[in-house]
UniProtKB/TrEMBL annotation:
Stated name of the protein: Bacterioferritin-associated ferredoxin
Keyword Ribosomal protein found: no
Family classification: Belongs to the Bfd family.
Classification lineage: Bacteria, Pseudomonadati, Pseudomonadota, Gammaproteobacteria, Oceanospirillales
Domain (BFD-like [2Fe-2S]-binding) ranges: 2-50
Keyword RNA-binding: no
Required co-factors: [2Fe-2S] cluster
C-alpha cells in the first residue's frame, strides 16, 4: 500500500528502511522525503514506524 503518494513510498519501503536502521520520522524524511509535499502521509508513516519499532522491541525482549 502506498503511504506517500506524492513520493511513491509504500509501507514496504518504510519497513525496509526501519529494518536498515531508521528509527525516526526524520530518518524516513531523509531517505524517502516523506511529508515534503502535501504532508498527508505523515500520520500513516508514523503509525507504520511505531508498529515496526514495537515489533522489533518485542522480538528483542523475547530473546533476552
Amino acid at each position: 500500500m502506498y503511504v506517500c503518494i506524492c513520493n511513491k513510498v509504500s509501507d514496504k519501503d518504510i519497513k525496509a528502511s526501519i529494518q536498515d536502521g531508521a528509527t525516526t520520522m526524520r530518518a524516513l524524511y531523509k531517505e524517502h522525503s516523506i511529508g515534503s509535499q502535501c504532508g498527508k502521509c505523515c500520520q500513516c508513516a508514523k503509525q507504520v514506524l511505531n508498529q515496526e519499532l514495537i515489533k522489533i522491541a518485542d522480538s528483542q525482549f523475547q530473546v533476552a
